[in-house]
Amino acid sequence: LSIIKVSNLSKIYGEGEVAVKALKEVSFEVDEGEFVAVMGPSGSGKSTLMNILGCLDTPTSGEYYLDGVNVSSMSEKELAKIRNLKVGFIFQTFNLLPRFSALRNVEQPMIYKGVPRQKRLKIARKALESVGLGDRLHHKPSELSGGQCQRVAIARSLVNDPQIILADEPTGNLDSKSEEDILEILNGLNEKGITIVMVTHDRVVASHAHRIVHFKDGEIIREDKTQNGINRE
Ligand code: ADP
Ligand code: ADP
Question: What is the pTM of this model?
Answer without folding.
Answer: 0.88
